[in-house]
Design a protein that fits this description.
The complex is a heterodimer of chains A (645) and B (303). Chain A folds into four domains: 230 residues, P-loop containing nucleotide triphosphate hydrolases (Rossmann fold), CATH 3.40.50.300; 79 residues, Translation factors (Elongation Factor Tu (Ef-tu), domain 3, Beta Barrel), CATH 2.40.30.10; 105 residues, Elongation Factor Tu (Ef-tu), domain 3, CATH 2.40.30.10; 174 residues, P-loop containing nucleotide triphosphate hydrolases (Rossmann fold). Chain A is 29% helix and 27% strand. Chain A is built from 18 helices and 27 strands. In chain A, the strands form five sheets. In chain A, strands 7-15-11-12-14-9-8 form a seven-stranded antiparallel beta sheet, with no helix packed on it. In chain A, strands 2-3-1-4-5-6 form a six-stranded mixed beta sheet, sandwiched between helices. Chain B has 303 residues and is of the alpha/beta class. Chain B has a six-stranded mixed beta sheet. A four-stranded antiparallel beta sheet of chain B has the order 8-7-9-10, with no helix packed on it. Classes of the chains: A alpha/beta (645), B alpha/beta (303). At the A-B interface, helix 2, helix 4, helix 5, strand 2 and strand 3 of A face helix 1, helix 2, helix 6 and helix 7 of B.
Amino acid sequence: MSHQSDLIAKDILAYLEQHERKELLRFITCGSVDDGKSTLIGRLLYDSKMLYEDHLAQLESESKVHGTTGGAFDPALVTDGLRAEREQGITIDVAYRYFSTAKRKFIIADTPGHEQYTRNMATGASTADLAIILIDARHGVLTQTKRHSFIVSLLGIRHVVVTINKMDLVGYSQERFDEICAEYKEFVSRLDLPDLHFIPLAALHGENVVDPSSNMPWYRGSTLMSFLESVYIGSDRNLEDFRLPIQYVNRPNLDFRGFCGTIASGIVRQGDEIMVLPSKRTSRVKRIVTFDGDQSEAFCPQSVTLVLEDEVDCSRGDMIVRPGNVPRVGNSFDATIVWLTADAMIPGKTYLFKHTSQTVAGQIDSLRYRVDVNTLHRNPAPDLQLNEIGRCSITLNQPVFYDSYRRNRTTGAFIIIDRITNATVGAGMISDRDAARQRIAAWEAEEKIGSREQHRSDVSPAERTARFGQQPATVLLTGLTGTGKSTISRAVERLLFDRGRAVTVLDGELMRRGVNVDLGYSTEDRSENLRRSAHIAKLFNDSGLICLAAFVAPSQSVRDRVADVVGRERFFVVHCTADEATRKSRDTKGHYADAEKGKLPNFPGVSAIYEAPEKPDLVVDTGTMTVDESAEAIVQFLITKGIIR
Amino acid sequence: MNSYNLTHLKQLEAESIHIIREVAAEFKKPVMLYSIGKDSAVMTHLALKAFYPAKPPFPFMHIDTTWKFKEMIDFRDSYVKKQLGIELIVNINEEGLKLGIDPFENSDKHTEVMKTDSLKTSLTRYGFDAAFGGARRDEEKSRAKERVFSFRDKFHRWDPKNQRPELWNLYNSRVNPGESIRVFPLSNWTELDVWQYIYLEKIPLPDLYLAKLRPVVTRNGVLIHPNDDRFRLQPGETIEHKMVRFRTLGCWPLTGAVESNATTVPEIIQEMLLTKTSERQGRVIDKDGGGAGMELKKIQGYF
């Protein structure tokens, strides 16, 4: 409420007309009580005359009991809500505050900054257009600043104002301000925050909040309030991709059938050709019906009712789109998930996924990695605990119509509901690249583009065989960790080299440090690791070399695909085995111990399946054979196959 | 591209319609709690818009304490029931009535029995799994953290420590039998928004909101407008006639009038913006139990 306007007393109708035209800006404030966050919000409300006298009187009496300012008016108490929290002196949930100025109406999502409340920040950020990130000028960029910035970027907030508060306590130093800005920019370059601003504040005294500060003449930018009033958010919405998730079918009588929903993105006009998903039936928009009369067009985020030209089947959960611009349709995708509840996320468990107006059962197939919100490091993890964030692959029991969250904050978002407790346990944002599908597609695309054809070369295979005195071949040494694959492949390499043969080794672990540095240990990533390595092995073979490939390669179907890429006539599988005690005794990195403790998911032999080769060309039991014996066995095998003489 | 911007009121309207439709689609048996006040009037209007040209596909329910202003009851029957033709359930706690609690003597008990208990028993009796209420987050501090979909256990209790997180516009409507959700489509509206919307959309309201010469008695600093012969003057009290109106409507013994000359909606807004006390100040019930009074009432099941 803009109590300041002179128009209220002079000309209320003119004031109402002005107020009616205001835009809405939603923002979130990130920081802890120590950064002066509650003080800042208290200031915004107080300085924009949003506090009534009785509230103020109540606050003044409460300042004496709960305040941290020695009995003087404590603006922080404005925003504290529930009794239990007030007594603890901390805010523990998302609170919404409202104020308006002559230019805009604002909704503040006030969320706490403590580590355990990632959940609340994600909640507040999900609907925000802008984020205010508070930094205490004395402390600079802290771990929590990084955490807040990461969550803001994850939830797709495009506009960020970094307010460097308590400038009074650092002598209003421009140098300190510049230093913090530089430090923040350095960190934030890894995140997707397209619109970044910095403002120096002393919120307790109201400096640069609403009124400019005379203590910081070196700062010539706008005050926080004038920035909030003027930042342009109009282009944030997606007006290109028309998506109308059907919420409700309105059928008061046989003559009227209206499809109701909130436009998630884009624009629709009367007469437009549309398509209904999943049926793919097309029709045209006959009417856009509202209580205030038919409209010729409608756009996001309006709530509308469409009447179509034809009798097309369409019910809740369906989506109306344009035939030339359709979302992805499918039941498996990758998403970043924020876990919201104390019971950990369990891969493979069935949950309910609410996405637009559809609620579908499904499961989280695998957790690719967990993100450390403080360092942004990606770590393998078996599950997600409360307030943890991870990248997951998801499979639903029926298809949904979705876009990536980055492109569309409505059709790219979902919540996860526990089927038994009905609690909202997670929130997800669908990824741009849906890695699992792309990887499978990569194997399949090869067949189409003929990448497995022999490369044309003026040097014939026969010439190469004559030169090197050998047939090219790839020997895959597969087996669990600790079965000696790498060691034996090196020993074979030595033996062959000493016999004058041209040979090389491809080691799965070394591949991951170079070509495959972007891959993890999920089933899909292991598969991709082998696909790429198979192509490298094929190149070696095409050049006439013998390739020894040491990989865990736990999946039979993936090994079969490798055989197809390399060429079945020159691909051999050696299964390396060893008893469990031997394997563990060789495991210097402690992988087995970690996997058994549940710290290492997707570890073949413990937390994932190892499919032993159905028909290996050779088995070497490295538990009973020495390295030399094993290597010699492989060399003898190559001789019997005519690869070498 | 600027023409594709919505004003804040149009945006709030769209969001509220989304919420109302979501409830109609996802719940088995929703009900709209109708209190006859201005927030209920806006909620009614939004429900009409959400399902136009059909009528709202759920009944309205009024918890009648038998102490509502007569003008409220007249308005309810003539507008909602007759003019709009909406199915209206009126619930009076007959058991509570027998206790004969005098709201003048014991306002707390009266509200608990005739309003809170009555609401809870009727929700259980009809088996409603969702109930719309007109509460706004800007009304009172404890409401600032309220969800749009507020989960209640089978005893209709609200647990402030155990609310479902609410992200985007994806509302979790899953409940087990006996449990329910209170839904607040006006959560993000402010008092000014409500009034402005009433003005723009010409939404009908009971006359009590407009200033008129009315008989009033000053009791404990509050201007009481005697509505029927259950009111008895106490020694030293006299009935005066003053230009007054009501900022909120409730039980007449508990609802203070304010002196005012505002006879149109813009004048009400003008007065509201120029005065410096908040809306619920006129109500006696919020002050029971100190600063956190409303919070306690909510945990008990009052809105």
